[in-house]
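A note from the maintainers: we've had questions about how concatenated examples are separated. There is no special marker in the raw files; a new sequence line simply starts the next protein. For clarity in this README we add a label.
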Amino acid sequence: MNPAPATSAASNSPALHVESSGSGPPLVFWHGWAANLRVFDALRAALASHWRTIAIDLPGHGRSPWVEGTETADPEWIAAQTVSGLLAQMPARATLIAWSLGGQFALRAAARAPERIAGLVLIGTTPRFLRSEDWPHGADARTLEQMRAHLSEDYRGTVSDFLELQVRGSRDAAAVHAALRNALLQQGEARPAALQAGLALLTATDLRAQVTGPGASAALAAMLPQAQHLEIPRAGHAPFLSHLERLLPELRSFLGEPSAARPAP
């Protein structure tokens, strides 16, 4: 998978790192907080015979740059800039396969530019990360505040704890944890400023009007038109790593696998 040339979404925003492989209708991959595009390697390899797969490092993650100082900006502005940069790397009418925080960006992109998106595959995505009186599926606000405080003191330790949390309950927890860790080693760690900005986004974001536990996924599916909900027992937060063989048939069916690979438009 070789890096593809990238162009900036805006004159004041550096280009994001993009990698493309395969041929056929385009599938675009957006990863989650503290990760990078390497987490999708196995899934992309399994799909590359029939689709063109395009993976992007989020700003400040992997090999994508981060504009220092922007982490203190309004979270909505950060989200809008991020979505602009990501959309700029997408071919027309691509299907988005997005995980966790990447899934929230995908929801924003679908609301902002629905004509650009052929379909959404949201993995471990919630429209609202924090719990509220009318949203029982979220995390306690104190948990996120503790993460933000720990991130300032020891960002590598915080990321390590977060990776362990991602695989909790997974049948193949050790192997999935190793895959996530290897992705960071191969592609590069996320910048602390980008991680702080991501946590601020998770604190502020509520996308229910626009449209990660199983309850949140089911509730999100109920909000989206023509949505299908798939829950894989003991898959943890990264089923594309822990249960790839279980996920692939469902994903291919949802995508409508082409009978033969063909060049993307």
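[label: protein 2]
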Amino acid sequence: MWVAGLRALYLQALHPRVMRGTWQNTSFNKPGEAWGRFVRTTEFVSVRTYGTTAQVDRAGRRVRKIHAMLTGTDPDGRMFRLDEPDLLMWVHCGEIAAYVDIARRSGMALSAGDLDSFVDEQRRSAAVVGLDPATVPASVAELDAYYESVRHGLYACAEAKQALLKSYHPDVPAQLLPLRLMLPPINTLAFATLPRWARRMYGAPAVPLTDLGATVALRMAHQSVTRIPRELIYLPAARAAHRRERDRAAA
């Protein structure tokens, strides 16, 4: 999840309007602001994934309200809304494609049909932020086709490159300072899992050997994590969801 989440952020930053809108509405240079935004995003994903329907509805209304109030400005002075469907679509697809790619390359026991089902199910996630599920990719093939259709408008703007550098030196709270040691290797792995065309946009080498090395590292990481007791690695929200399922089954 950490690797996939960071990969999604690096990919999402390649849409200039998404990146500028995020940058202009978040004080990245203000202590704690960027980290706070990252934590809020993580909490939203946790609730959306494991929360009850009522919790997801509340979180969705809050996010849609916030997005509806925010705007960004292009270099030529044109303004845009952060809740424009094409921007929401890009963010959604970046997240879901990251989960699919990392799960597949990590060696998880998922068939092509499983991954297609996951992409299809996540159209409900797209609806939470305000997208029409009927317009959202419903399979891995449709995700791939979406990326082919939008790549011509992508590039690493100045804000995207600054955000990449800042991700290696996050302004984390004092109690989380050990993260500063953990994040650089995780960030590097996440960046290495990007598609070659995305790495090239950042000005980084894009050779097949990097893809192979990243896949090997993902498989090793997955194998090591599967040996950790689940109660130690599950998010509290995930544990609560599992308890609800057990109670429902018992009832």
